Amino acid sequence: MEHEGRGGGHGAGVFALRGSLSIWWARVGVTRASFLGQVRLGVPLALSLMAEMVMLGTDTWVVSKLGVGSLASMSLAFNYAGILFVGGMGVMMVVNPLASRKMGAGEEEGGLFVVSNGVWLGFGIGFLLWLMILPSSAVLLLLGQSPDLVMDAEGYLYVMGPGISFALATISLRGFYASTGNSFYYGVIFTLGVLANGVLDFLFVFGIGDFAGWGLWGAGFATLVINILMFVSVLCVSLYHKTFRDFGLGRYLLKFPSRGVLKLILWTGIPVAVSHVVEETFFMGSTFLVGHLGRDALAIHQVMMVISLMTIGLVWGFGEAARAEMGWAYGRRDRDGFVRSMLTFLIVTVVIVGITFFAMRFFVDDLVEQFFVLEDSEEGIRMKFREIVLMWSWFVLPEVPIGLGVSVLYVLGYTKSKMVIDLCIYWVLIMPLLGWLIFERGSDIYWVWLWSGVAVTLVSLFTVLRAYWVLRSRVGW
């Protein structure tokens, strides 16, 4: 009888739980309209972020045709600039949630002022980062990199460096498109930018007619030109297209930046910037460790960097849409709308990342053929690259909970949480292990990416737990 009573109680509890979940889902569940709304907003943003990564991939693919040596130099240049760029990008990424919160609260003027201040801040940060590019050759040599590789890397960096300011200002304008709920034109511009970048890459790298081309330097010049053109295009559409004309963004861009707004962006964005630097420089910083494993390992590392960034770009693109919708809901204190945005993001990204997972596994041989068909490549580099891609495909799956947890923390303003999580896992726990593996054990590039995947999984777990704790304990949800 005792056993039966327990069973009956358990069954009643299950039915009660199901009933509660049904009521909750009916109240805040994802409707067809909410799902399609976030998809419409998220697809152009995802395409734009994907386009940024594809442009990096195009540069890498074109440069790979010059030989493994050029690809290795590209790796040094790409990762040196990337470490700087992701810091500035981190600050700019808070423009969207901050502006969306203002828009959701009915403070349209405040939202537009956040965007305009972000644009000018992007140019200022970009200039500082360009100054940090100038001593790149000395830094790379100090890190023990090959002088021949450093010379080509330095030329690429000097040419593309000024474009960082335009790229950061464009990210701030992305916050305008996201917070106003219309990202279509932003996605179109970046899609066209990818095509133009590919054409300019071939033109400036290999030349045409009597123009002999500039090699690796040409890829840097193509990147500079495209960054300027895309900023001008995005700005002109936001100022003059009939969809955005009534917002009058131009009036706010002409106003002198506000110390209070700049402080808000910086104090919210600096922890995000540090978090991005910690996370991305774990991968990019490991480049300089990989450089000690040889030229072939460095070439593989560069291609894997591009693949990983492209998969992250998809999640972060839909994350921009989710952060906009969460920001609107948070601004108007709509708890159900906030949760609905979270659920929609989760469903969309599970589908996208699932497709990415299977694509990486089924098309791995195509990736090998595209990037490693060089006369000076041995069969070993091709087999090692294939092995790493198949292993890494499993580690794209944690990007879904990372994207959800990060979006919650950024919108609610708990940006320091992500910074501490990244710092502890990537730099305190995993990076020393990688250094030990490379210098003491002589391990190959496979182990670098395996432990990088372990780090991603740990970050996923702790980020989600932190976001849940904030929602329950700090916000009362």
Features:
477 residues, mainly alpha, disordered N terminus
Uncertain segments: 1-26
Give me the number of helical elements.
19
Radius of gyration: 23 Å
Domain count: 1
Please summarize the sheet with the most strands. none
Average pLDDT: 81
> Which overall shape is indicated by the principal axes computed on the Cα atoms?
globular
Instruction: Count the E strands.
Output: 0
What is the N-to-C order of secondary-structure elements (H for helix, E for strand)?
A: HHHHHHHHHHHHHHHHHHH
**How much helix, percentage-wise, in residues?**
over 70%
Strand content: under 5%
From the N-terminal CA to the C-terminal CA, the straight-line distance is 40 Å
Explain briefly what this protein structure is.
84% of the residues lie in helices and 0% in strands. By secondary structure, the protein is an all-alpha fold. 52% of the residues are buried.
Report on the structure:
The structure is a single chain. Helices cover 84% and strands 0% of the residues. It has one domain (29-474). Helix 3 crosses helix 7 and helix 7 runs parallel beside helix 10 (216-240). Mean pLDDT is 81; it is low at 1-26. With 477 residues, the protein is an all-alpha fold. The chain is built from 19 helices and no strands. It has helices at 2-28, 32-64, 68-92, 95-104, 108-133, 136-142, 147-160, 163-179, 184-206, 216-240, 249-253, 259-290, 295-331, 335-362, 364-371, 379-392, 399-412, 415-439, 445-474. The chain starts with a helix and ends with a helix.
